[in-house]
Amino acid sequence: MAISPEEPAIDVRKLCFSYQGNNSEGVSGEQTLEDIDLDLPQGARCLLIGANGSGKSTLLRILAGKKLTKTKTARIMGQDVFMNPPGGVVYLGTEWANNPVIRSDIGVAHFLDSVGGYRHKERRDALLDLLDVDLEWRMHQISDGERRRVQLCMGLMGNWDVLLLDEVTVDLDALVRAELLAFLVKESKERGATIVYATHIYDHIETFPTHICHLRLGRTPDEMVTYTPSSTIMEDSVAAEEKRGELLGIALKWLREDREVRRQRDKERGRERGAKSGADVSKTTEAYIRKGFRAILTLSLVHGKQTRDAKTFYEKYDYNAGKN
Ligand SMILES: Nc1ncnc2c1ncn2[C@@H]1O[C@H](COP(=O)(O)OP(=O)(O)OP(=O)(O)O)[C@@H](O)[C@H]1O
């Protein structure tokens, strides 16, 4: 897709999303994503870092056009992802493994051809080699990791501009994962392809990102961090070694902060709920008491006498027995 090199590949501004629904003005219900900003130049490789439930998958699915939000604030390669979905966007997520079709008795060669493999034979063959995929495999007879490698081959063999990866490297062995990351770095450098990668695995990934983005409880609290360009450290093994663990350190720091913020938020919500239910309970109790005492009052008045309790209640709640 041809756009000027200065234009951002991904341009998300104040994006909001709620699973409870979106109305014509925007979102309604509790927001899963709130005021998300993500601005990535072409050729960027961005790691999305956030705790479980922080909204990484939701954001990636929205960018892939799989979830609708009417806030109209997400553009990829200059095009609105909802109104005018851009081509050249590949989304690879874990839910693919649940699709019964990919566990059926079908050969890998046939499967890849059925999704256009014959059109990209050269890239397909390079990926088969890189991901160590055998065209003779049958999809129902391979392991989860092998099936994942077929998925990656399928997703990456076309000429994509933007790749949205939702933790699909988790079941790859270390060698395939390392080679895949090296391939993606090459794609971004040589073709200007842009990658957003949500992961919880920070091992040996220091040389991958050019940017890191923090999602905290559905928000982007910090400025996006522009990471030290990996080219400078990849050529210098000492620098690369020094860098080892740095990303994990940043991720752990953010995750600890997020946990504190979430605990504080949960505590406040608990207090609010407690106060609300406390208020509800006391109102309900009071209503019952009033009813109960009204009955006693009525009875006692019927019998021509007021009990002491009824009288106390009477006074406390300023009842006028004659009128009640
Ligand atoms: N289909 C759904 N309906 C309602 N709420 C959902 C749905 N899918 C996700 N959520 C909620 O949205 C929030 C964000 O979920 P999401 O899967 O985007 O987080 P994540 O950062 O990808 O988490 P993880 O790291 O565990 O994969 C969570 O609180 C989750 O419970």
TrEMBL record:
A GO molecular function held by the record: ATP binding
Keywords for this protein: ATP-binding, Nucleotide-binding
Pfam families: ABC_tran (PF00005)
Domain ABC transporter residue range list: 10-242
InterPro entries, A to Z: AAA+_ATPase, ABC_transporter-like_ATP-bd, P-loop_NTPase
Protein name: ABC transporter domain-containing protein
Provenance organism: Filobasidium floriforme
Taxonomic placement: Eukaryota, Fungi, Dikarya, Basidiomycota, Agaricomycotina
